[in-house]
Amino acid sequence: MRIKWGANIVNGAEVCWEPGRVANPHIGVFADSGMGKTTMLRRIVAAMKESGHPRVRFHVFDGHGDVDIPEASSVTFHESSDFGFNPLELSADPEFGGVRKRIQSLIMAINRTSTKLGHRQERALSRLLIALYRRHGFVMEDHTTWAADPANGKRYPTLLDAIDFGRERIKVMATGSSERAVSALQDVFRATKQMRAKEEALSRDGGDDEAALAKLERELQAAQEKAIACFTEAVKTARTGDEFEDALEADGQKETLEAVVDRLENLYQIGIYRNTTPPLDPRSRVWRYIIKSLSRDEKKLFTLTRLETIFTRAVQRGITDEILDIIVLDEAHWYSDDAEDYVINRMVREGRKFGISMIFASQAPSDFADILIGNLGTKLLLGLDHTNNAYVVRKLGLSEASLKSIIPHRRALVQMKGVGELASGATMVSL
């Protein structure tokens, strides 16, 4: 794989990018608006496609709908879409996949948006999805159950399944026999405490209120009879064996679960999580996800859940010297986050050995966390606003004079960190 940036303006030598010669294959393209970022992205994709592995797959996340790539298979995602990706699809790998990791990655993606889940909602969503997976035959503790088997009717649950299951659980909380049994048992405990408290009070005061005690005893007896009837019904109507445990977990959680189901319904309405797979051509090496119609939070949610799937599959594929997945993030500052466990930060740190290259396009290096900037093996500066100069001089070690020598669309600064190098200079290139 090879990208020709241009000619060194000092000696005319060809300046090229080859993944085996740089510290890592990740690239940052930085330029102010109108300075050629989109054109450079097309040029990079074309060069990598021409010189890369025959099985390389590009994933272009197009936030404005203007990164048109020749021969790309493009799909537009919006709230009226009939297709989308299933956020509940599992990896069956016993080390890197499974129910718990899938649930946690979804919760983490949701919590990267402006409206985060509360701790009780996280717990309720986790319990709901664990039970949903179990109903479909995928047991969290047993990795041998994690693979789907469509031929025999075993498929991964979908977001719509989760919504329906959540509604079912809410209804059961209000009317289910196990829930009524738990509630009736609590009534017994409450009546017992009242009676004992009354007895102790009378004993201390030396009083005698037989009428009050008789009334409390009748209430306790009625509560006991109701509890016995409810438990009898619960025993007779048990189907899965999990009813009573679910009832205990659900006790007092109805409002929380209702809020979780509302959130899932809102996610479904976005239009990115549908039951029908998007019509991306498997023969095309470039898949372009057009997400211009989505809000900023929706773009982030779509991109993060998709990247999680791509990264998990790459890790499951194993270590390789070939670049097989290339991620192109236009307006990459939308997805910036400094958390260690953030999927993008994990991909720039670990993706190289699993055949992943990431290409970021944004207006300035200052848009990104240090963890990401430090893991970009190559940085292209096509023309920055002067307000970014101080940051670039301090963080990238470039001179202000070199930044002023950039001529948009004609001259660019290319900084490539070689294998084994701790720092690197920059080359002024004639494009």
UniProtKB/TrEMBL annotation:
Source superkingdom: Bacteria
Keyword Coiled coil set for record: yes
Pfam families: DUF87
All residue ranges annotated as the AAA+ ATPase domain in the record: 23-386
Family annotation (Gene3D superfamilies): P-loop containing nucleotide triphosphate hydrolases (3.40.50.300)
SUPFAM superfamilies assigned to the protein according to its UniProt record, in alphabetical order: P-loop containing nucleoside triphosphate hydrolases
Keyword Coiled coil in record: yes
Keywords, ordered alphabetically: Coiled coil
Coiled coil: 206-267
InterPro entries, A to Z: AAA+_ATPase, HerA_central, P-loop_NTPase, T4SS_component
Protein name: AAA+ ATPase domain-containing protein
Species of provenance: Burkholderia aenigmatica
Upper classification of the organism: Bacteria, Pseudomonadati, Pseudomonadota, Betaproteobacteria, Burkholderiales
